[in-house]
Amino acid sequence: MNPPDGFVGGFREAAPYINHLRGKTLVIGIAGSLLQGPPLRRLAADLNLIASLGVRLVVVHGSRSQINRLAQADGLTPQYHQGRRITDEATLQYAKQAAGILRSDIEAALYSSFAQSPQRSKPISVASGNFISAKPMGVIDGTDMGYTGLVRKTDTEAVRQRLDDGAIVLISPIGHTLSGKTFNLSMGDIAEAAAVALQAEKLIYLIEQDGILDSDGRLITNLSAEEARRMMAKNQAAPRQERLLRYAVNAVGHGVGRTQILNGNDDGSLIRELFTRHGAGTSVARDAFVRIRQAHHDDIPAIMSLIRPLEEQGILLRRSREYLEDHIGSFSVLEHDRCLYGCVALKTFADPQSAELACLAVSPDAQAGGYGEMLLKHITDQARRKNIRRLFALSTHAGEWFAERGFQTASADDLPEERRRDHVEGGRNSKIFVYPL
Ligand code: 1C4
């Protein structure tokens, strides 16, 4: 086995994601608090890099913390109703001022990160403009929200034109009405509306927490729209997190592929989310019915009918019913609409740092739809949680599939002792792959 090579492995893992995202539109909403100092410089560098790979970027910036600072400098206390800012005349001026300063700072950061990167002869241009029209929020429960507005419409044609020209589109949280009035909008609203209007591949929110947290403060990595709705119904999310969940659910319910909520202070989180299997933060997906879960004894008949034909073709090892009954705890199954479409097992060894991805199968009628990739991600996440450092896979037919996903070729000598014995005695001559975690 070659020594684990972080760069080569990482590059191989990233390549399919780079190909997939080229030409796709991402809408990225960034909290105002991240848009200064080192976080802004790092984000600008990452945005430049992503745009240079041919990904179409629409960036929406927030301005909450900047508006608060301007108001507080004048001795004013920001007023909120139901978590929304009440915008009076003075606050509207702060909002305009903050938007102008932020736009200029972001442009400067994008420009300077370009200047430090060797890859281009010409900076990626930044297009801003009146892409968003607004309407007043009005009076809520007797409280006049003043110049706080809602998104009326996104000018998708204008945005698409700028994206076609190769620009990064930058949208400020300010909108105008046809009668020429200006309203203070929320970054979250605009990003959601733009993602839906543009039918974006992903809507991403960069915030100051790791993502959506459970009641014990632990990161929830995956939520279906249905699970997110349940969390909101049971008031299990803090108010600001609940708002993000609502945006996420609305967006995926209206055609956006996925919503991702990430920590923008975590250096490289955006790159990890887009170009690694592990991803980052919380992912909210539209499909409420596809899920991977721990297998139960009741699943054994369905697992057997999935794997028997593959065993007969010599693709999978033979596993008796007794074996499955004894080892069902190491199996996970993928189900769609309560039908089983895939399975995988994590086999552990005496060496606690090594494990094997085994018995991976996706039903023939569901192949090439990403289920194999989902099962692989599930098992690498599970292995990481168990502090496993090397994930092996042995295969007679699917070597390319693993190589394309960042696995490296290995030899029998690299396998844990007990697996090496079985491999040699079994005489299957399977190819051996390893994925360093
Ligand atoms: N080789 C290369 N590419 C393949 C491929 C293959 N055999 N099968 C599918 N692909 C490509 C598709 O063409 C598609 O490419 P595209 O169109 O996107 O460019 C892409 O992969 C689809 O990716 P996906 O994420 O949608 O994948 P799924 O189709 O959902 O699932 C499986 C991929 C390989 C899991 C699926 O095709 C399948 O179930 N195949 C039959 C079973 C199989 O080969 N499983 C791999 C087992 S290796 C054994 C054991 O029993 O433990 C043997 C151990 C031993 O000692 O030999 C394992 C691990 O279970 N080992």
TrEMBL record:
InterPro entries: AceGlu_kinase-like_sf, Acyl_CoA_acyltransferase, Asp/Glu/Uridylate_kinase, GNAT_dom, NAGS_kin, NH2A_AcTrfase
Keyword Transferase carried by entry: yes
Biological processes per GO annotation: L-arginine biosynthetic process
Enzyme class: transferase
Gene Ontology CC annotation, any one: cytoplasm
E.C. number(s) listed in UniProt: 2.3.1.1
Membrane-crossing residue ranges in chain numbering: none
Alphabetized GO MF terms: L-glutamate N-acetyltransferase activity
Reactions accelerated catalytically: L-glutamate + acetyl-CoA = N-acetyl-L-glutamate + CoA + H(+)
Record-linked CDD domains: AAK_NAGS-ABP, NAT_SF
Family annotation (PROSITE patterns): GNAT
Keywords: Acyltransferase, Amino-acid biosynthesis, Arginine biosynthesis, Cytoplasm, Transferase
Pfam families linked: AA_kinase, Acetyltransf_1
Pathway field: Amino-acid biosynthesis; L-arginine biosynthesis; N(2)-acetyl-L-ornithine from L-glutamate: step 1/4
Domain of life: Bacteria
Localization (cell): Cytoplasm
Residues annotated as signal peptide: none
Family: Belongs to the acetyltransferase family. ArgA subfamily.
Further remark: In bacteria which possess the bifunctional enzyme ornithine acetyltransferase/N-acetylglutamate synthase (ArgJ), ArgA fulfills an anaplerotic role.
Protein name: Amino-acid acetyltransferase
Organism this protein belongs to: Neisseria chenwenguii
